[in-house]
Design goal:
With about 220 residues, the protein is mostly beta strands. Helix content is about 10%, strand content about 45%. It has 2 helices and 13 strands; from the N terminus they run H-H-E-E-E-E-E-E-E-E-E-E-E-E-E. The chain has a 13-stranded antiparallel beta sheet. The longest helix has 18 residues. It is globular and about 55 Å long.
């Protein structure tokens, strides 16, 4: 009788544990919904604070047309430039001098695409509840640790280590008042360097909207 009670008790515990478990596929499926549309326009402001320096801001206008075409215009006190990607080729234009640098075969990165740094479900162990969040530890220590909010259905924090530096990134997402609800709104990256100094990068998505049709001439490489 005691064995039967113990067996039933273990069964209930197992069912309860499984009912509160979080599936990795669910995490990554929900996080994928935070991605911006393939064809969209964004206004981004990035503020960088380096050790013993005043914060510096860079404004960016980003227009994406599908997965392989984009135009990024960057403004700061130090420089003004435009980069155009068409396929695997990138053209860089110095807006101050008007000079165009030779095109290169390097793929341009979308600064607002945080999901590419998170890997895939196969890269991680099963999530473990930690306070109000789920901690998701990678199988490979070179990948970041993710912190997932089941309430927000998004990864809200990410930590990593590289060359003695410890980095913590926090993410905020748009609510229903935004043009594109659920997409990225703000990223804050705080890093403690190996020498004890700290850096801070804050990226704000000021505006983002879906675009339908963009003229091919906008991404002309000639």
């Amino acid at each position: 009788m005691k064995r039967m009670v113990r067996f039933v008790g273990l069964g209930i515990l197992l069912v309860a544990t499984q009912s509160f478990a979080l599936d990795l596929k669910t995490v990554f499926d929900n996080q994928a919904k935070s991605a911006f549309p393939d064809t969209c326009e964004m206004q981004i402001r990035t503020t960088i604070t380096l050790p013993n320096q005043k914060p510096q801001s860079v404004d960016m206008s980003v227009i994406n047309a599908g997965n392989d075409k984009s135009m990024m215009t960057i403004y700061s006190r130090a420089f003004r430039m435009k980069t155009i990607q068409n396929g695997n080729r990138i053209k860089v234009i110095d807006l101050k001098s008007g000079k165009t640098l030779p095109s290169q075969n390097v793929k341009q990165q979308n600064p607002a695409d945080i999901n590419k740094n998170m890997g895939t479900p196969a890269d991680y162990k099963n999530p473990v509840k930690e306070g109000n969040l789920w901690k998701i530890v990678p199988k490979d220590e070179t990948k970041p640790i993710l912190y997932y909010s089941a309430a927000k259905k998004r990864v809200v924090k990410m930590t990593s280590q590289f060359n003695g530096a410890n980095t913590e990134s926090s993410f905020e997402y748009c609510d229903n008042s935004c043009t594109l609800p659920g997409t990225l709104k703000k990223v804050e990256i705080n890093t403690i360097l190996a020498d004890g100094n700290t850096t801070k990068i804050v990226m704000d998505i000021m505006e983002a909207e879906r675009r339908r049709v963009l003229p091919p001439k906008m991404f002309d490489m000639d």
